[in-house]
């Protein structure tokens, strides 16, 4: 049986974990680098072309949330589910307890538990309406709303939240808050994304399903 976890509302979703990148498809845009909370990807130049590679030192931290698939325009990464028994073996080998879905915990590719964080709120005074949270969230937890003549992000489907904190990580204005997370932890989360990819490496593009031009740091 393949491993699955639960969203905030209780529905199960199948976890698929990063396996490898098909370099015949990869265009080196760097969006996977931008999207991955756990730094499972890195950009390298090979024969004069920039390509994305699996960072072997971090790939076992993969959440299996598929945000990289959400942002990749060519679907270059190959992700696969993991059998529950394999998870149990990895967890036992690392002396880690396996958390059952629904307990507020999920598992990394290594079998190590991580706590899901579901209690989100948006500070409308900080939000600039850039749309990064909409771009990163494959569960469509967020949408845009007109407020006083400008667009700001709002939460419309919190029950679909995976609790993975990607939205918190990429918000440049610190407008998305986890109600129970201290400010020091926010700084730690966001520091993962500093200097990971330049504007030259990550270009703007339009995705009709997301209805916006995605903007990057």
Helicity level: 10-25%
General form: globular
Total of domains = 2
**Total number of beta strands:** 14
Class of the largest domain, according to the CATH hierarchy? Alpha Beta
- CATH architect. name of the largest domain: 2-Layer Sandwich
Q: What's the SSE pattern? A: EEEHEEHEHEEEHEEHEHEE
Number of helices: 6
Strand order of the largest sheet: 1-2
Average pLDDT over all residues? 77
Segments where pLDDT lies below 50 for 5+ residues?
A: 189-217
> What is the terminal separation in angstroms?
39 Å
* CATH topology-level fold name of the largest domain: Alpha-Beta Plaits
- Give the percentage of residues in beta strands: 25-35%
Which structural class do you get from the secondary structure elements?
Answer: alpha+beta
Gyration radius (Cα, Å) is 17 Å
Task: Describe the largest sheet.
Answer: 2 strands, antiparallel
Walk me through what this model shows.
The chain is α+β, with helices and mostly antiparallel strands and 217 residues long. The protein folds into two domains: 4-115, 2-Layer Sandwich (Alpha-Beta Plaits), CATH 3.30.70; 120-213, Alpha-Beta Plaits. 18% of the residues lie in helices and 25% in strands. The radius of gyration is 17 Å and the shape is globular. The termini are far apart.
